[in-house]
Amino acid sequence: MTHREQKLLKIQTSLFQNDGVSSQLADEFARQWQAQNPQGQVITRDLGAEPVPHLDLARFQSFITPEEERTAEQKAVVNYSDQLIAEITSADVLVLGIPMYNFSVPSTLRAYFDHVARAGVTFRYTPEGPQGLIKGKRAVVFITRGGFHGEDHSQTAYVRQFLGFLGITDVEVVHAEGLSVSQDAKENSVKTAREKIAELV
What we know:
single chain; two-stranded antiparallel ribbon; five-stranded parallel β-sheet; 7 strands
């Protein structure tokens, strides 16, 4: 039996794209992971550069219309969603770089989540409640914030809840806070986050 090469999916969401601190931390993790897995593959999904469309009625109806009844436009919508989901299901490790915008995650990430949460595909409803269908993944999440909000903030809880909803429960979250408070606060916070990367890899 041949050994399958490991895959890492890096999802960055900063409006500043590669210049965002959250993107840089996620990229640093990916670089160190690549050094440990030289045969591994890193896939990048940059939601700042290529935003996922927001979910509207037409797109939602595309998901729930039976496959044999979908129009060409609906098939294109579903194929796009399937591609996003395939990136997740083929990866062993997910790394997310997430800044805080207005006390929550970027709207581009919410739109992305709306396209990968599909009943019967990535989760299913059961009498005991929803059950995630994406198993055996590890997720490392870098959350950056201009101020200080703490690890128990609803933003962090939301990301954990959504990943768990899909079945991804092995989740490590690294916070880098106070980036807009002062240069010293920013440098100290980023330094601490980078030190954590070496531990997590």
